[in-house]
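Thread: Newbie trying to understand structure tokens

Hi all, I'm a second-year student working on a class project, and my supervisor (Dr. K.) asked me to get a predicted structure for one chain before our next meeting. I've only ever worked with sequences, so writing a 3D structure as a token string is new to me. If someone could post the tokens and maybe explain what I'm looking at, I'd be very grateful. Here's the chain:
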Amino acid sequence: MRIKSVLKISAVIILAVFASCTSKKNIEVENKEAPLVKIARVYRQPVEQIQDFTATVEANTVNNISSSMPLRIQSIKVEVGDRVSRGDVLVQMDNSNLMQSHTQLENLRVDYTREAELYKVGGISKQSLDSRKTQLDVAEAAYKQLSENTRLITPISGVVTARNYDNGDMVGSKPILTVEEIVPLKLKINVSESFYQQVKEGMPVKISVEAFEGDVFDGKVSLIYPTIDPNTRTFTVEVKLPNNNRKVRPGMFSRVTINFGMKQHVVVPDMAVIKQSGSGDRYVYVYKDSTVSYEKVEMGRRIDAAYELISGLEDGADVVVAGQSRLSNGIVVKVDTTAVK
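---
Reply by user tm_fold:
Sure, no problem. This is what the structure looks like when written as tokens:
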């Protein structure tokens, strides 16, 4: 009886061990089943080649109003923020030197006129007359220079953006005033050399300014720099913004958008794109013959819920759009056929 009991217990243990092994094998089989994925077929499509560039708005022209002579300021006629027109007198300097120069010039003119009459009748030599004429020319040049540095005018129309002195100050190294032309404005952008042959003067651009969210302004390419920066592989392009309403101001942050036309590129759903951890590289799982391969792609612009690809995929490729978390390069997968597009 005792031997029978031992035999029964042994049989139970053997059955339990066998069942345990069978269960482990079933789990392993389940784990080795091909992952279920959803795929989508991608094609080449015409895509607008729109590029965005950041820029800081600049005045079209900046003019510093100052005297080249060490004179005292008599009166400043404008304040920061005032609009001025070309030819306006903005600063009147002390004119005592100008008055002295004017008196000297008038005396020399009288002397020259008198001596010219004497020369006609043989009263003086040609050399004496020429010497007097030289003195008169020097005095006229000196008076003109003093005049230009005593009544300071603006050569451009714009807005006064800086004032560094007050009435009665002696002029130092800084300009008295700064005037900036804001109609139009200009923006400088750095464009990849790959677009060098496509950028043309007069090309229309769209400009958005951070300070005016939602507003879009029209501009044009006005100047293309003739050289490429060897460090950045970019070239500088100047864009003009008419700014007729004077809404935009120098110093504002902006974005310039240029449309370079249409190109045929593969467009892939955004769900298919995977960012590699630790880098900026992007990858896509490509399905073919029941397996997937991990392919690096070069991204273009985002188009709604998809991305333009510059390179990396062929036209008509099948890409995985769901189930990537269980995938690795070269693994066999099972496709959810109801999701194939």
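A couple of things are worth pointing out once you decode it. DSSP finds three helices and 19 strands in the chain. The two ends are 71 Å apart (CA to CA). Feel free to ask follow-ups in this thread.
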